Target: ABC transporter ATP-binding protein
Amino acid sequence: MKKSIKFILPLFIVLGLLAIIMYKGISQNTSKVVTNNKIQLVSSLDFYGEMAKAVAGDQAEVHSIVKDTSVDPHDYEPTSDVAKLYSSANLIVSNGGGYDTWSTKFAKQNTKAKSINVASLTNYKEGQNEHLWYKLETPSKLVNELSDELTELKPAKKEYFKKNAQNYLTSLKPLTDLQNEAKTALKDKKYLATEPVYDNTLQALGAESLSMSFEQAVDEGDDPTAKDITDWHNDIDNGSVQFVINNPQNTSTLAKQAVQYAKEHKVPVINVTETKPKGQNYKDWQIDQLKQVLKAVK
Model:
């Protein structure tokens, strides 16, 4: 009797330990799967949030953090409420590239959440232009990635997410058509800019900036050099540029003075923001800005 008890007890313990190990393994593998509840999705920037909402549909609650054109995303300081949103998120979308370091930091801290970093998605290299939503390929890359990541969270909704992604990209056709037309109109056209906000779009369409040093200084929070300012004035005086791109969210005094100089000399100034204007969607926002540029070069 005692012998049989000695045999049965260790076996029972072993089976129990195996059950615990298996349970932990299953829990770890399914910890990122959302079943009955809505996916909690946090996006650092509102236009990425728009894309996320379009793909996720009714399967997620999407929280966009920076969504006001009066706010410079570089200087944004998250609140404790924002930190809570990140800590409870299932999926986080950050721009990356040093643009929204607060978002990428929160994403790393929430080890249970899935994370999309647009910089990684678009093969961003350190020192390149971090305004990645102005790269022509970003919407398609991000929307397709969102579909894949959301599917991992809710596998049963794979076709739903895929269809939503396709529908959103189809809705952008007027924008992509305009961009294709602009490749002819903007080829070899010269411009000045207060910051490199719109450079990813303009340079992909064939235009050339004559103010890279000026832009970089302002983007990094520094003052342009005396040479930068002199070059800006000379390019306007001798008619080298067709238009000026201004980021109205920047408060640099020298940038404002440079824009004023352009206006005084009848050079078209197009305002290009880092955040989506209230009441506009991504497509209309991009079309509106590009139309203004095309009008300036006609």
Summary: The chain has two domains: 39-172, 187-297. The CA atoms of residues 20 and 26 lie 10 Å apart. The radius of gyration is 25 Å.
